[in-house]
Amino acid sequence: MGYWLLKTEPEVFGIDHLAKRPRRTAPWDGVRNYQARNYLRDEVKRTDQAFIYHSSCAQPGVAGIASVVRAAYADPSQFERRNAHFDATSDPAAPRWVAIDVRLQRRLKRIITLDELRAHEEGKLLGMLLLRRGNRLSVTPVSEVHWQFILTLE
DNA sequence: GCCAACGTTGGC
DNA sequence: GCCAACGTTGGC
Q: What are chain A's domains?
């Protein structure tokens, strides 16, 4: 079982949006960074678990848990001319970007804030990629130990 | 809105 | 292949 952290801006597409989708399921698309794409394409498996993390907002932190219900497939938005994530240089015969589908399992009882995570940066969460200085990746792996510890903070 | 950090682009 | 310029991310 793999564990992941998926960043999203709640004003664009956050946990509230996911909760309102049919079957609480939606594509996780629009990823346009190669390293994040490689995780999605090569390592994220169906049934893996993911923290939904809110960024660029008043209270950055982990908001909920989703499960991966579909592994990587070509992200349709790269070919949609009017889409913000349109990529004119991506070849339909060899699509550059991938999406996965995720289903909301549950919200956390409360947001576990970035501040709280940072409080354990030198301890239980040592080495967590999200906390690494300058990290901007929107898809990062989470170790099982870190995953379990974060849930004890809830 | 600021700005540090990092990724991407493109001239050479 | 180098690296300066530029764009994006994201906390604050």
A: 3-153 (3.10.590.10)
Distance of CA A108 to CAs A90, A99, A113, A127, Å? 37, 24, 11, 23
Predicted confidence pLDDT, tens digits, chain A (154 residues): 999 999 999 999 999 999 999 999 999 999 999 999 999 999 999 999 999 999 999 999 999 999 999 999 999 999 998 888 999 889 899 999 999 999 999 999 999 999 999 999 999 999 999 999 888 899 999 999 999 999 999 9
A118: Cβ under 7 Å from strand B?
A: no
Å from A93 (CA) to C9 (C1')? 30
- Distance CA A33 to C1' C7 in A: 13
Residue A47 CA distance to nucleotide B2 C1' (Å):
41
Nearest in space to A97 (alpha carbons), one of A13, A15, A39: A39
pTM attached to this predicted model:
0.94
Chain C: bases < 7 Å from a protein Cβ: 8-12
